[in-house]
Amino acid sequence: MNIIRNFADPNGSHCLLLNSLREVNVTSLRSFPYYRGFYIKLGGNNLTGIFASTEGPLFFFNQDLYLLEKGYCTFDLKRIGQEPVVHFIWREKSILQIPHAWPLVIQKCGKTGNYTADFFCWLSEAVTSEKFYSFYTLKNDIKAIKPNLFNFKCSKKLLIFV
Using 50, 70 and 90 to split pLDDT, how confident is the model at 1? Predict the structure, then answer.
């Protein structure tokens, strides 16, 4: 069972089962290891997050899965009209524009403040760091996730390991 923590509440009672993308109450489970990764729940039933794999960090938005590679992905925090959005660019293609209240985070933390309080602020900085890719790439681990083991919807145009 591969379970990742909720970014907003890493010590809370709700976690995400990666094989089914279903939130579970971990107080009802007896024993489980957490897997390397985090997720957040956006408006409605939308889920997004990252987790480690043998290929490198994997970003998911609902059923869509993307391998994050240094220099080939960005998470830009910007405005489209009056609406603040997170703009995910992957391999020079605009993939997602997710409405997000990041200006409130910046107002609260300051432009050079602690962005770790917000998933997308943290992720936009993390994907520029070599340590991020090293931490989320699992080597020589028989329990490591191999991306094809999940029920994610993967496009052959997007993922090289499908």
Answer: low
